[in-house]
Amino acid sequence: MRTLIEDAWLLGASLLIGIGLLASSSVVIVLGTLVFLSSAAGRIWAKISLDEVYYTRDMSLTRMFVGEETVLTLALANRKLLPVPWIEVREQVPEGLLLIDEKIFVTGASRTRTLRRNTALGRRDRVEWRVTVRAVTRGYYRIGPTTLFSGDIFGFFENEMVADIPAAAIIVYPHTYLLPELGFDSVRPFGELPGGNRIYEDPSRIVGVRDYQSSDPMKRIDWNATARVQRLQSRLYEPSRAQSIVIAFNVGTLKRSWEGSDPIVLERGVSVAASIARWAYDTDLEVGLIANGAFPGQGRPIHLGVGRHPDRLNRLLEALAGISSFTISSLARELEGSLTAGSTVIVVAAVMPDDLVATLHRLRRDGHHIHVVKISSQIWESELGSIPVSDIANLMESLEAGLAEELGVPGETILTKGNKVSASEVAAPL
């Protein structure tokens, strides 16, 4: 359509010149010539308007938690001598990212909106815009592609170009809570956790006394015991252990998988699993993750072995950030043969199928400590017996409402996954 309109100018000019020649009217010939020259100049100007125009995009943060903000810097530079009378930038932005104090436009693409910027560029000129972006939904996102529009000074002819820069990849980690906010004890949220190797003595736990040794510090001397036996006695402390925590996340949210998924409960489970992972890492415990959902763009369940490497938490949170509602296996099957001896298994689940109950009982008989975190109000028919269960569904509802109010968005906004990309399109962890 635009090409037809542009061609109409040349056709109209040619007709005017032809009519002028037939009528021997110099005025019409001059008018036609002016229209022809103007349209030709306009087309040439529009054609070269985007030559040597460079667009850049920069993010102050590419890894964020829900609720955090980053600054998106957009810049245009005209490096030619000819000015650009007008130029429009159209930047594609996924729904999971909220642009603060910005007007956005709905596009035909699913879960994508358009940010527009208009300006003019002089010779060798440069302009820059800063946009505050708030993360409102966990996920893997990309900003882009970007389309540039320009044309002649009269606006009769246009040119467009897709900016030759890669999309900006962003990972938004799930929102995490402190475990006391979820109703757990701040010191031992999951009770006494067995297992592990001795790494240091805990001075808060005295298990006995022994004869004083020259290497013992004075603060270790038990003066009451010394008085009783009439020789120096030193306290014996219980050894602390490097415990292994495995977070087992059941991605299924409804009793029958073919019924689909409850997005609210799914996001709740992701957030709870991330909160436990962050607590375990901060407590200096070895932590791993097992889930019957897949990594983005991959067809295998999530298995991250236990460890305390500095990037362990990043990997756990990135896996949870990209997890979808699609289950590719049962959690019971994924737990079979996946645990080290003596590890603690914290199960985050909305539903409790019979096969999972049987697996948890078997793991407990094998010496594993099991704790179940229930995240839905559904009634579980299966009998867990003496396995401890923490039901936090009602508490999570109030926390989710508070989070939505804090972010300044409708509650359902933070419960809907945004525009996803494959893991291969996202940069390596920082």
Could you characterize what this model shows?
By secondary structure, this protein is α/β, with parallel strands linked by helices. It folds into four domains: 2-48; 53-173, Immunoglobulins (Immunoglobulin-like), CATH 2.60.40; 179-193 and 243-391, von Willebrand factor, type A domain (Rossmann fold, 3-Layer(aba) Sandwich); 201-240, no CATH class. It contains eight helices and 20 strands. It has helices at residues 2-23, 26-48, 223-229, 263-282, 312-322, 331-335, 354-365, 393-407; strands spanning 53-59, 63-65, 69-78, 84-94, 97-99, 104-106, 112-121, 126-135, 139-143, 146-151, 158-162, 168-173, 198-211, 233-241, 244-249, 286-294, 301-307, 344-349, 369-374, 389-391. The strands form five sheets. It has a six-stranded mixed beta sheet with strand order 17-16-15-18-19-20, with helices on both faces. A hairpin with a 5-residue loop joins β6 (104-106) and β7 (112-121). α1 (2-23) packs antiparallel against α2 and α4 runs antiparallel to α5 (312-322). The longest helix is centred in the first third of the chain and has 23 residues, at 26-48. The chain is elongated, with a radius of gyration of 32 Å. The relative contact order is 0.12. Mean pLDDT is 81; it is low at 196-200 and 417-430.
